[in-house]
Write a structure and sequence with these properties.
Elements lengths: L6 H18 L3 H7 L4 H9 L18 H14 L1 H21 L2 H12 L5 E4 L15 E5 L2 E12 L6 E7 L9 E7 L5 E6 L10 E12 L3 E2 L5 H37 L1 E2 L2 E2 L4 H29 L5 H26 L10 H8 L9 H15 L1
Parallel strand pairs: 1-4
Antiparallel strand pairs: 2-3, 3-7, 4-5, 5-8, 6-7, 9-10
């Protein structure tokens, strides 16, 4: 069992760190305040291969492993969690759904555009009445001749108003419940398909989060992904991988919070000495850095198992739960260590704190993760 990054992964880590500091850091203040994604960054992400990270090279992807993917997400999210989330949603959800379950024709038509960065992708599952209860969907798709007609709406969709390619989950047979749910590929510009309300959020403000609206949208029959009725099962598989990416995203927020706190504690002088000399501060840092390493091990293990072709609902839920709750905990601690300055925009920790809350909600709340883990443990032992 090897716990060391390979030489290639060390180079990847440094290159992503350099890219994030040079290309993303200067855009953060403006994009966070305006709540607007800097579209010029999409082109730069594409040139770095970050819009096709785990997609095979034959579909214009970078062909990286899932462990590589976690490394990338941590380094990006250390600088800006909004960019980390945009990358995660594009890669893990939309692109990977087509990658894992799409036909060869769908991959050639859509996946190559996504992986090469010609457009961002979005994934539509959540609805106003279907969040944690993902099977309670109301968006309906009815077969009519050589096409499907979609009606309904989706909520809180990352990249929703920016993406040109969307994977949308809809009910095709209400009587079959979970076995009557299917997945479709929709393109921006289809009649009756539009982005609705754009959310003005607490954190992750630069990432586009929008409602999607479907009003008699005609979708070609060939845009059904896989078999009819397999959409729910497909979505659960996609979420397993997505949770590993959110764990990597959370690692970035946690690491940035702790590194900022360490730097500040060494510089801030009270009672004629750096506050880093005080045991209260030292214990905060000791606990935080220890738990960060534990979160990394959980996340790398889940990603490694994915690379080995294993089914990882328990491992991905454990990684996501631990890493996301750690991000909230240590970003809060970072504000505390910074004192009054931590509550201002003079230091980045206030943004880490705001951004961290999405980690325990997106791709399944902490409560859902605990339920998944408990069900697996109860069935295994």
């Amino acid at each position: 069992m090897d716990f060391l990054l390979t030489h290639e992964q060390e180079i990847l880590k440094e290159s992503i760190k350099h890219f994030a500091q040079k290309e993303i850091q200067p855009l953060i203040k403006d994009s966070d305040e305006k709540g607007k994604w800097p579209e010029e960054l999409t082109i730069k992400l594409a040139k770095m291969g970050l819009l096709g990270i785990i997609i095979p090279t034959e579909y214009s992807g970078a062909g990286y492993s899932n462990v590589d993917y976690v490394i990338i997400l941590e380094e990006i999210s250390k600088v800006d969690a909004s960019a980390g989330l945009v990358i995660a949603a594009h890669n893990s959800l939309c692109s990977n759904h087509i990658n894992l379950f799409g036909t060869e024709e769908q991959k050639n038509k859509y996946l190559t555009r996504l992986a090469s960065g010609q457009t961002l992708g979005a994934w539509g599952l959540t609805e106003a009445g279907a969040g944690s209860d993902a099977a309670a969907l109301k968006t309906r798709a009815e077969k009519k001749g050589d096409h499907w007609v979609l009606n309904g709406s989706k909520l809180f969709i990352t990249n929703g108003s920016l993406a040109e390619i969307h994977v949308v989950i809809a009910v095709t047979d209400p009587e079959k419940q979970r076995k009557g749910i299917s997945a479709f590929i929709l393109e921006k510009g289809m009649d009756g398909f539009r982005a609705g309300k754009k959310e003005d959020k607490l954190g992750i403000r630069a990432a586009d989060t929008s409602e999607l609206v479907f009003e008699d949208v005609k979708v070609p029959a060939e845009n059904l992904i896989g078999e009819e009725g397999k959409g729910y099962r497909q979505a659960m598989t996609i979420l397993d991988g997505g949770r590993v990416s959110i764990a990597g995203f959370s690692l970035g927020i946690a690491a940035a919070s702790l590194e900022s706190s360490l730097k500040y504690a060494k510089e801030r002088v009270q009672f004629n000495q750096p506050i880093a000399n005080f045991q209260a501060i030292q214990w905060m840092l000791a606990d935080g850095f220890t738990e960060l390493e534990a979160a990394r091990l959980l996340t790398y293990r889940a990603a490694f198992l994915e690379d080995e072709g294993k089914i990882v609902p328990k491992e991905s839920a454990m990684a996501k739960l631990f890493a996301s709750e750690l991000a909230v905990k240590v970003s809060s601690t970072a504000v505390q260590i910074h004192g009054g300055y931590g509550f201002t925009k003079d230091y980045p920790v206030e943004k880490f704190y705001r951004d961290s809350m999405l980690a325990t909600i997106g791709e399944g709340t902490s409560e859902i993760q605990r339920w998944i883990i408990a069900q697996k443990v109860l069935s295994e032992y």
